[in-house]
Amino acid sequence: MEISDRVRAGDVRAMARLISLIENGFPEATSALKGLYPFTGQAFIVGITGPPGSGKSTLTDQLTQEFRRHGRTIGIVAVDPTSPFTGGAILADRIRMQRHSLDGGVFIRSMATRGHLGGLAKATNDVVNVLDAAGKEVIFIETVGVGQDEVEVVKTAHTSIVVTVPGLGDDIQAIKAGILEIADIFVVNKADREGADKTVAELKAMMALGPGRSDWSPPIFKTVAIEEEGIVELAQGILAHQAHLDQAGVRQERQRERSHALFLELLQERVTRRLLERAAANGILEQTIERIAHRDLDPYSAVDEFLEKAGF
Amino acid sequence: MVEERKIRVLVAKPGLDGHDRGAKVIARAFRDAGFEVIYTGLRQTPEMIVSAAIQEDVDAVGVSCLSGAHMYLFPRIVQLLRERGADDVLVFGGGTIPDEDIPKLREAGIAEIFTPGTPTSVAIDFVRNRAGRDRK
Lengths: 312, 136
Known about the structure:
The structure holds two protein chains of two kinds. By secondary structure, chain A is α/β, with parallel strands linked by helices. Chain A folds into three domains: about 1-35, no CATH class; about 40-245, P-loop containing nucleotide triphosphate hydrolases (Rossmann fold); about 260-310, no CATH class. Chain A has helices spanning about 5-10, 10-25, 25-35, 55-70, 125-135, 155, 170-175, 195-210, 230-250, 250-280, 285-295, 300-310; strands at about 45-50, 75-80, 90, 105-110, 140-145, 160-165, 185-190, 220. Chain A has a seven-stranded parallel beta sheet with strand order 4-2-5-1-6-7-8, with helices on both faces. Chain A is globular and about 65 Å long. The model of chain A has no long low-confidence stretch (mean pLDDT about 90). Chain B is of the alpha/beta class. Chain B has a single domain (about 10-130), classed as Cobalamin-binding domain (Rossmann fold, 3-Layer(aba) Sandwich). Helix content of chain B is about 40%, strand content about 20%. Chain B has a five-stranded parallel beta sheet with strand order 2-1-3-4-5, sandwiched between helices. In chain B, strand 3 (about 60-65), helix 3 (about 70-85) and strand 4 form a beta-alpha-beta unit. Chain B is globular. Chain B starts with 7 loop residues before the first strand and ends in a 6-residue tail after the last helix. Chains A and B meet through helix 2, strand 3 and strand 4 of A and helix 1, strand 2 and helix 2 of B. Strand 3 (about 90) of chain A pairs parallel with strand 2 of chain B, so a sheet runs across the interface.
């Protein structure tokens, strides 16, 4: 049986192995993904992002528990950073989720960023497609601990949850562009700590400043994930956003944006690779770089020349 | 573009003792050797470890035990991997293991035992040489 058929049948080993093939960029991964694509688009995808230590893994664990209680099957992609020096990584998000390891309705995969910026691993989208095609109904993507600008998760997720904790900084931090703008839902976790109400007030004030989004006003939930507090409400908040997306037709719009981004990304990668392979083979790449380095040629004209020769 | 295949290792602490320093030291050393290390933390049952190893598609599982229960826990992990068709996953162990137990553990399918004082480089070389060799 083909690996894609085994994935569709929910074979855990096949799913795990295909994800490795994808991560390692093996060609057989692409052919399997081609076969699986028609069966994707069923899952509801929830992104969970926020700074390191804000409780993303614990929230993911608790939300998994809550959705399992209602019989939904779950896929989890948990991303941790790769060391820029050694290429190694310690992927430790599972520590908080191990109680689900024996539940056949939950598949958890840890991924390292492998140098990819933006808060996700490069292969995240493809891995989500594997889990989707395997029939997982809700897929959680837990990003690396992010700062202010790693917002890539919004391109993949239907619902993006931004997690923060009390006491991270004054209210100016909250007006900054980037991460706070992508939230469909805010979570103030560790809300038993001092300053939780202040953080909620600051988020509200920040949202009141801007023109806001006409269609959806991001709710703010207070949770103490480790004590299971506020989880039921948060899960209902996710479902409410899902209902909103379906009603407003926004989900199709997001699906279109996601397809657009995916196609451009793949195209860019393939075109660049082919061009470079050809240029490297006939020595043009090396010559061009030499000329730029010696100031015989400027890089802008070099690109023009290069593309012209390639027939563009 | 075929990238270099990453070595993935699960480092786990089965059983009830809470001494995870050794496991953390080895996890860190593996990271520095360029491996991707999935760390699952304390008090894991063999069933939980094997399930995680399969989902994470690791090349090797390193288990550390200082409670004395290694003669049950380590072979059980090997057995469960075999039952699930994942006998190509390399299993090695560490911790306070008496010398006389080591041959029996080898016989049960544990590829290597690293006792206290083993330099981390020995474990790294071992995994690098053996990981994925029998990958199905």
